[in-house]
Design a protein that fits this description.
By secondary structure, the protein is α+β, with helices and mostly antiparallel strands. The chain contains two helices and five strands; from the N terminus they run H-E-E-E-H-E-E. The chain has a five-stranded antiparallel sheet with strand order 1-2-3-5-4.
Length: 114
């Protein structure tokens, strides 16, 4: 099966502006940001979407959420606030079939998101 764009980035095959990485995940700046700070956090394990996660992924998902908070703090977003979003499926705007979380901040974010 062919690697997703995010697998290629995580494997270093495609360059990206990496802001964080460890054995389980990689975070990099979005190439089409919708906020002053817009980082994508992806697991190295190729999970197609949040709805594709299974029980054995629970520890990884927890790690991703804690890492998202650490990245937001590193980006200076802790005090002002930030949003973590996982688009799941095409109707929600997911364009890459690899679970990823958007970390958004640096401006006031509207609700509902649209």
């Amino acid at each position: 099966m062919e690697k997703t764009l995010f697998e290629k980035i995580a494997d270093g095959e495609i360059p990206a502006d990496i802001v964080y990485q460890d054995a389980q995940c990689v975070a990099f700046r979005d190439i089409a940001p919708v906020a002053p700070q817009h980082v994508l956090l992806v697991p190295r394990k190729p999970i197609p979407s949040l709805s594709g996660a299974v029980g054995e992924d629970a520890e990884l998902l927890g790690h991703l959420m804690l890492t998202a908070a650490q990245i937001a703090e590193h980006l200076g977003l802790k005090e002002q606030g930030y949003r973590v979003v996982a688009n799941t499926g095409s109707a929600a705007g997911q364009t890459v079939p690899h679970l990823h979380f958007h970390i958004l901040g640096g401006r006031t974010l509207e609700w509902p998101p649209g």
